[in-house]
Amino acid sequence: MNATTAILLLIMLLGILGRSNVIAAAAAILLLLQFTNLQRLYPLLERRALEAGLIFLVVSVLVPFASGRVSARDLLSSFISLPGIIAVASGIIATHMNCQGLELLQRFPQMMIGMVLGSIIGVAFFGGIPVGPLMAGGIAALLVNLLGWLR
């Protein structure tokens, strides 16, 4: 077993232990590609998999609009009520932080192991919910930037 396989197995195990099906499944898919000699797909996945995943995520979020469960009145209240304005601001901040997290993970992919481990600790000891590496990366990017600013 080479180091790459061991790392992917470790990530998959950490994903399982941390109850993050997304991380476990992603590592399993990469292991499957590795064992079937389909590594030539790695560049395509690196360029397009995040985009494809985000499309499915946005589709999931937009289903209540498409199904009519969110009315025009509900939409309007998100712009004129204090909770609605807070929700819009939170969405802006979260997406900006996720972008920063993605950039950090692209520069330092080895941080993923720490984020998965942190997610496991958060789930096991603090009742957290593992929502994915981008938000953890966004928080890490914020903390790394703050640390750099404080130096």
- Which strand-content bin applies to the residues? under 5%
User: What is the rounded Rg?
Assistant: 18 Å
Regions with little confidence, pLDDT below 50 for 5+ residues? none
User: What's the story with the biggest beta sheet?
Assistant: none
Distance between the termini: 42 Å
Net shape: globular
Number of strands: 0
Mind explaining what this structure looks like?
By secondary structure, this protein is an all-alpha fold. The protein has one domain (3-37, 71-150). The chain is 82% helix and 0% strand. The chain has helices at 3-17, 21-35, 42-66, 72-80, 82-107, 111-126, 133-150. Helix 1 (3-17) runs antiparallel to helix 2 (21-35) and helix 4 (72-80) crosses helix 5. The longest helix is centred in the middle third of the chain and has 26 residues, at 82-107. It is globular and about 60 Å long. The mean pLDDT is 85.
Structure characteristics:
mainly alpha; 151 residues
